[in-house]
Design goal:
Layout lengths: L1 E8 L4 E10 L2 E11 L6 H19 L3 E5 L7 H20 L4 E4 L1 H9 L6 H12 L8 H15 L4 H4 L6 H7 L8
Parallel strand pairs: 1-4, 4-5
Antiparallel strand pairs: 1-2, 2-3
Helix pairs in contact: 1-2, 3-5, 4-5
Length: 184
């Protein structure tokens, strides 16, 4: 089944975003870019720009899901608050268009892409490049982080679209879906 996933790495100065199309294990990158807002003088104007851009992307690509990186809570509470607002505006735009939303911690994204939850942004970018064959000119780590979030969502084996329920583990899934077991 083909799915279109909007991936966002939120930020109030730079927001990375992408849209991928998946079918089985195949991942096609439809668009990736960054929204730079450092020249906007006011935080509220940045949030408005994030909302408008997210709606424009949704209206252009009609994603099935929004995958977004959860804010990293560091020592600076003001930065965390601003980042949370940026994420909230993206969520509001997706929900306004009835797009399901899933957020992933930075550690979860790194783990899904590289196998290590403590990987660097550069290591994540290198693995993303192997998965979707980026243009050699792509150097923006916020854009590659957005792709990583979208791929992380794709890699989550949420079996809800198979049987209508979420499964707590393989044992429950296999018990309730014996026809899906391939015997050798």
């Amino acid at each position: 089944m083909e799915k279109i996933i909007l991936g966002i790495d939120p930020g109030t100065n730079i927001m990375g975003y992408c849209v991928i199309k998946t079918k089985g294990n195949k991942i096609d990158l439809l668009v990736m870019d960054v929204l730079k807002m450092s020249r906007l003088p006011d935080h509220a104007l940045k949030l408005k720009k994030i909302f408008e851009t997210t709606l424009r992307i949704i209206d252009s690509y009609h994603p099935d899901f929004l995958a977004i990186e959860a804010p990293f809570v560091g020592k600076n509470s003001q930065s965390a608050l601003k980042l949370g607002r940026a994420q909230g505006v993206c969520l509001a735009a997706a929900l306004y268009r009835s797009i399901p939303v899933q957020e992933y911690s930075p550690r979860k994204v790194k783990q899904a892409i590289t196998g290590s939850g403590s990987a660097s942004k550069e290591q994540v970018a290198a693995m993303v490049d192997r998965m979707v064959e980026l243009n050699p000119d792509v150097t923006d780590l916020d854009a590659t982080d957005a792709i990583a979030v979208a791929i992380c969502h794709h890699l989550q084996k949420d079996f809800s679209d198979i049987g209508g329920d979420k499964y707590s583990g393989w044992a429950k899934f296999l018990t309730e879906n014996p026809d899906r077991i391939v015997k050798k």
